[in-house]
Each structure stands twice: as C-alpha cells, then as structure tokens.
Amino acid sequence: MRAERAAAPTLADLAWTFVRIASTSFGGYMAMISVIQQVVVERRKLLASQDVLDGVALASALPGPIALNVAAYVGYRLRGARGAAVCLAAAVLPAFALMVAFSAAYARWGQAPEVGRVFMGLLPAVAAVMVSAAWQLGAKALPGRREAALAAGAAVTLLCTNAWYATLLLIAASALLGRYWLPAGPAAAAGATTEPAREAAPAAVKLPLLFCPPQLLEACLAPPAQLLLQLFLTFAGMSLLLFGGSYVFVPLLQHAAVDAHGWVSRREFADAVALAQLMPGPAVVSVAFVGYKVAGVAGAAAATAGMLLPPAVLLVLCAGLLERVKSSAALGAALRGVRAGVVGMVAAAAVYIGRAAPAGAASLLIFALALACLRRYRSDPIWVVPPAGLLGLLVY
Q: Which superkingdom, per the lineage (predicted)?
C-alpha cells in the first residue's frame, strides 16, 4: 500500500527535525535510526517505512557512520543533494557541539562532569525507543513466517557475535535469502517511493581533493591551514575503511591519533572514547575531541568533516543508482530480505542497550513507561528520553 505522505519539507524544516532527532539519539547508531523511523515515518509521514529500511541497507553496505549515512539518505530522498547535506550537518551538530564543550572543559579541568546516574535512566528509555521502532518496522517488513524467521535469525546472529563484519554479512545473507527463499512479491514496493529533486551533488566536487597528493596541497597553504588539512585528510582516509560501526573505528582512530601522529596521549584517547559514550548520536564524534586538542574548534570541525563527508558523498552517488534499479524484480526480492534482516538487527540492538541498563525494578519501570508513551500515546522521543534521564537521577 502507498504510504500517506506530507508535502516535501523545506531545508530549514529538515534541519530542525534532524537536530531534534540527534538530540535524543543516545545509545549508538541503531538508536538514531530508531528515532529517525519514529519521527520521519510514524509522526511526520515524510517517507514510507520501506524507504528508511532501504537507506539502512545501503548505509550498512557502505563505509562510514551508519546512522549519519541514513540521515543523509533520508535528506537525499526528500530534497536531493542539498537535503542530504542539511540532514547530515544537522544530525551531527548536537553531538559535535557537546563534544567541543566537553573538550574545552577537559582541557581546563582535566575531566568530564559526572553524569552516570542520568545515563542509567536514559538506557531503558532508549531500549524502549528501539523496541517501538522494531515493532513498527516489523508490521510492514514481516508479512509472513519466512520474513519473521529471517528477522529472528538476524537478531540471534547479531546477539551471538561482536565481530565487526557481522552487520555486513547479515545484510548480504538477508539479500540472498530474500532473492531465493522468500515467496514472490512486488518488486521493492516501487510505488511507495518518492524521487528526490534531481540536482548535481555539490559535495561530489570534494572527491578529487581526497586523491590529490597531500604534500602538494600542504605546500600551497600556511602552517595553520596545513594542520587543518592534515586532520581532514587523515580522517577522510579512515572514514572509507569504517565498516561495521564503532568497534572497528576505535583501533583505527587510536593508531592514527596516538601512534602515528601523537596528537593525543593514550590516556586522553581513552577519555575521548568515554566522552563519546555520553553524547547523542554515533561514537565517531570522538574525532572532534582529537581535532580540538590539536587545533581548537577549527580542528574539531576539520576532523569531523573528514570523517563524514567522503562516506556521505559515496552514499548519495549510490542512492541515485539504487533508485534507477529498484524496479528490478530480483533486486526487489533481495531488498525484501534485507528489510526483514534490518528489523532483526534493530531488535538485537534494543537487547544490547537493555542489557547495559542497571538490573532492577527501576529500569523495568522506566522501560515500561517509555514504551507506553511511544506506542500508546505516540509521543515524540524528544519528550520521552530526557525525562527518563531525570528520573534516573532520582531513582538510582
């Protein structure tokens, strides 16, 4: 069935929407994807559920931060390349601003503020957001027993392994099972998609920069600009190796920032990773800490831009190709399998977050209250997650 859609939002509306989404996305990349599903599909009806699942599948198969790539994909589907740029910038802005603020505090006082009890309350609420998203996604992506079995298999597999390549293998396996095992059906729900505004992706002009000899570029710049360029190019190269989420990112970042360049000490690096766990959005925001330590706010911006821009450009280019081939029956069947697998991955991520919450009646109460607000009253996560943190401050 065709999803009921609202009119295409303005760029300013998209920016505000994704700032709000990012501000409540605690708990890793699946938490942000869950909030995107809750706001973009359920509340705003800007895209169909299948569209978001396609974005998750594409982002999982490409390098870069998965949640931010999904944000860029949603923006591209709604407003073309400009929408992708706006959504990407808005999705990282809250975490970036908080990380810069914490980095400044760290530089002055040597440690971050203690907010442990607040985040003990956030975790059950984040798990509830993810359970709600899996519920909503499953209602449309699991029409039969085979799709449900595929989703369950993906969830169990993800819960039983922490290997960095697990997500990639699950996406590939889901596509194969969708193509050859699921019953015949419509090709990728082609009627439920919207074409983005066709325009040349302005970010694409930045790609040649990544292939220019760094020595040639640095020779043309003053020393402060050379340092910013070095930060950008270092993290741009790393971003194209980032598959499978932050588990593979941490050792790569440590090698570059600590061993290769000596930008931060091992203690400072460990503190940066710890701070990233307190931020909404993806853990890759820890590169802002490294950039700030090297060159202040400009360095934080250069490091973050290097980590985000190349994967986002690659995703936009591949998203345009995906739209042209989605009418293929074979690809449509594969995407049906991927959508079912993604439902299982979201459910598994909810279990991971739930396990991290403190055991006891208080966590169960916060989880139940948050899930009731999300499912029964259709509350926006922005009105559910922060109050849960305040409740955690009182009860733990």
A: Bacteria
